Predict the structure.
Amino acid sequence: MKRLIKNGIIVNEGSSSLGSILIEGERIGKIILSEKYDNMESYNKYIEELESSVPCENITDAAGMHIIPGVIDDQVHFREPGNTHKATIESESKAAALGGVTSFMDMPNNNPPVTTLAALEEKYNIASDTSFANYSFYLGATNENLEEIKGINPANVCGLKVFMGSSTGNMLVNDEDMLNSIFRESPVLIATHCEDEQTIRENLEKSKTKYGDEIPFEEHPQIRNREACVKCSKKAMELAVKNSSNLHILHISTAEELEMLREARKSNPNISGEVCVHYMWFNRKDYAKYGSKVKCNPAIKEESDMLAIRKAVKEGLIKVVATDHAPHLKEEKAQPYLSAPSGLPLVQHSLQVMLELCKKGIFTIEEVVDRMSHSPGELFKIKERGYLREGYFADIVVINTNKPDTCSTLHPAYKCGWSPFEGYTFSCSVLHTFINGTQVVNNGKLTGNRNSMRLNFNRKQ
């Protein structure tokens, strides 16, 4: 089956050019750039010839729009198994596709936690039957499962998640010998949540003494404060330098961690960091307005941290931008501070957030594509994805940077039914999403078609 996306601005590998893409089956067959032709007449003639070989219903006119590789989100919580009242792999992967996210990597803090290879494969089986986007899943580390970790197949599992701070269930890894063994022996990238547990507990007790049960949400960045993040991230980086580990620090939230990362990479260039879109959009001032809706872990912090994070992404110190998509029901989030769970639903709107920051002059569209598609593909060594290249899987998104989106924040596709961006009109729209050559989203609506795959990685077992 052939498909043609014609006459859009192709954004890929640092440049933007007028062109068209021919999809053949599940892969990109041809990329036709107008600049390769002597004149537009020659280019148009060739496109007309291509059109004659493609069914008219399979032709997408992208004139005036941008064509980009699908977004790869390296950190989501789709809640299945165990908390399917909040979300499912099916519901959240639909939201992802609507937002231009064509591949995701899901975390193991389910109920029960995914800390065995058998449980990991059960999640893959669920995704095989229900996911609308390409998928991979992390194995979770514990203080006791080193043999499971050593059994990971690097060719078909994205990574190992290590909670070095507060966590779900039995997933807090605080045994020093085990941490050293993990950092020394993990066959895959180690992705860490870095917040110091003891620091958080002490801060929480201080807030309880001051406020009782009526802790205001504005206290969240004081309870889960910068010291908790810095202390734990420092420890992770030291372990990675000591053991020459492949370390990826998730959801960095402070300026100090960024400078620590810069220094640590001089000793071990395989240490990397990720930031999430909400740390570049919100800051501490927003707790007064949004309350529990912006309660997440690590906490959103100062405006100076937000600006430092933007700068690090702009400079390329941080090469991966993701979401930490973590939905909860409205009723759950409406509870007082001590009961309201942490987490925001974000995967449908992350690309729009970055494009909005692009409109504000903070990033270029080429930088957005690099941080959300190219660099995640490179860091995780994802096989034949992350770029628009002939022979690669056809994970392609068409966006209109001049069409405001007035609907998705009011009526998001998340099963939880709400968005922290409610009431905001994004100036850009995601119109079409192709996953493995299948059009999953057409004019901003799901087609009902599904052709997702398990992600594979260019790593040796």
